[in-house]
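Example 391.
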Amino acid sequence: MKIPKSENRFDSYNSCKRARKTEEQTLGNFILPNSNGRRESVAIFGRIFVCTLVLAFIPLVKIAAQSAQQWKLPDIPWAFPIRDKVQPVIDERKGPQHVPGSAKSYTQDQIDDLQNPPDWFPDEHAPMPKVVAHGADGGVLGCASCHLASGLGHPESANLAGVSAAYILRQLADFKAKNRMGEAMNDMTENLSDEDARQASEWFAALKPNVWQTVVETDRVPKTFINMHLMRMPLPGAGDEPIGKRIIELPQDPAGAESRDPHSGFVAYVPKGSIAKGKEFVTTGGNGKTIQCAICHGPSLGGLAEVPAIAGHSPMYLFRQLYYFKDGSRHGSMGALMKGVVAQMTQDDMLAIASYVGSLPPASEESFLTAPGGQTSASLVAEANKQKAVK
Ligand code: HEC
Ligand code: HEC
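Predicted structure in complex with heme C:
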């Protein structure tokens, strides 16, 4: 059966609370591997029906904008996750949840309230702007729910910690203008005000980049499934399988990921040989197949002025972006600079490059040291804005 569009969305699940109840009640009946197709359909259609009722309150403008777009999530499930239709019943996580080192506790329902995400370690960051903690009217959810209160995010979202504010702002504008696709963020930015975008960008840019995943080369990986929050999780007791040509990024501790614990990182399994192959492309340009990344992304790939940091970011995320630049769905004002970089890349090349870049230590913006003419990122941004205003 073709998976309905709503299956790909973060928000249709989470913002339709009533639907979610129905879904949990219904999905609770299914246990892998003996599910039957008809009952699955009941779960899905039940949800769609309830969601339809809720969505009926969203202004027509939104529906018009969506039907105008032809975009479809690429069919590469390891990189562009789709939640599994049948969810294994594992651990219900009843009652208050805790994470190591924090005195706080939240129930799983509180953790999954995307307008009120958990803040396990409030002393580790500046106070969050309202939009980061709670979102805003018009379907804007709290940024810290998917990107975490550390900004480090999960592989299915994105790492924003210490990424330049000018770059973040531009991405928000690109998502809003649909120059960059990704349903969660297209929806999130639709009604995002300029002021909220500015505050969120500055807050994430001020966070410290950190080591967030280790990259491990392997032939075999645990069998996994995609949970209701689009997180890939190991399937307990299911054994392992060949990795094939995939990146399988898993939480170091599944409970930590479910808790949205900003201290609980990831392991990215990649096929053997990927890191060395990727390094060749990144550092030499691979005999003219691509362009050395450091020219634009800075010597340690920690970002240069408005060019983003990529070192140490999630390999699965990095792969998605290379793919989007190549298939043309990411084509914002600065995206043109990546066009030539990816033009001749195969998916295997992208996988290798993403593995290598993800294995590097994260670095913060180098623009203050190395921008041409000794300019600081702030002065470059001011210059770019002036040029925009002239146009
Ligand atoms: C429901 C989950 C969710 C919420 C809430 C959310 N995001 Fe995202 N965000 C994502 C996903 C998923 C991506 C990755 C899209 C992709 O793979 O290209 C993303 C990507 C981004 C990026 C691009 C990162 C990069 O390196 O280019 C930015 C910037 C961003 N989000 C900012 C925000 C801000 C600001 C908010 C709050 C207003 C927010 N997000 C709320 C899911 C979310
Ligand atoms: C000519 C300059 C240039 C070169 C060379 C270059 N990049 Fe980029 N890259 C950019 C710019 C500019 C952006 C931001 C595009 C945008 O705003 O959408 C970017 C964005 C990216 C992103 C998306 C980051 C994110 O957080 O979403 C990835 C991944 C990336 N580049 C990887 C690479 C890799 C890998 C190489 C080398 C093989 C490379 N780039 C070489 C200019 C360059």
